[in-house]
Design a protein that fits this description.
5-stranded mixed sheet, single chain, two-stranded antiparallel ribbon, alpha/beta, Glutaredoxin, disordered C terminus
Length: 224
């Protein structure tokens, strides 16, 4: 049993934890026995330790909390959902972007959004709109009033502008092709029978354990 990541068993427990006014709540949806969920546990524990002053971590069996998993749009495991006062703020799969997501939400923790501070009464909102400063309307000028009117661009000028746009678009396309040739192919997801492994850190953990198990019990044969 983890010291920092507690397992929730009932819906009542979940609702009580989501009431936390002082910290964010991180819900991890897992499936018991799923190898991908097991692989990310060490990194999850480290993040929970580093961010214990900002968030409380809870583990939920996706089958026991199926209603909440569907409501929070959990489609891949392990899924981490960052909650604030019953509101979903972030949703990440795996631990690669988990710490960053929590830090971003915590940076705005406790602040009221513009919608929350906006007046609820339509009459009050209308009064604010009328009192708000407005951009000055452009002055209308007439021929002969001493103002200088800008002539309409000629057909030659229009053709030149069109050609410049075409050259600019072609240059952008050339840059895209050049950059595409220099890009490296990176593996960021591996689908297994018992789940999907997402993220560079999780892939490293899985591949290391796989090859250790593959060669651990094999005897060495020396040919002479």
């Amino acid at each position: 049993m983890s010291r920092l990541v507690k397992t929730l068993r009932t819906e009542e427990e979940l609702k009580n934890k989501l009431k936390s006014p002082e910290k964010l709540v991180v819900l991890e949806f897992v499936k018991p026995g799923n190898q991908v969920c097991v692989y990310v546990q060490p990194e999850r524990e480290k993040i929970a330790e580093d961010l214990k002053e900002k968030a409380d971590f809870f583990e939920l069996d996706v089958d026991e909390f199926k209603k909440y998993a569907e409501k929070l749009q959990v489609e891949a495991l392990p899924a981490f959902v960052v909650m604030q006062n019953f509101v979903k703020k972030r949703h990440v799969v795996g631990t690669d972007d988990l710490k960053k997501a929590i830090d971003e939400v915590h940076a705005t923790f406790g602040r009221k959004t513009q919608d929350e501070t906006a007046p609820k009464d339509p009459a009050e909102r209308k009064t604010q709109d009328e009192s708000a400063p407005k951009d000055p309307e452009p002055e209308q000028t007439t021929p002969g009033s001493g103002s200088v009117q800008r002539p309409e661009p000629s057909s030659r000028e229009n053709t030149t502008v069109k050609q410049l746009h075409e050259v600019d678009n072609n240059t952008k396309f050339s840059h895209l092709v050049t950059n595409g040739k220099n890009r490296k192919i990176r593996i960021y997801k591996l689908e297994q029978d018992d789940g999907t492994i997402i993220g560079e850190a999780n892939l490293k953990i899985y591949i290391t354990k796989y090859y250790k198990g593959l060669f651990a019990n094999r005897s060495i044969i020396i040919l002479r």
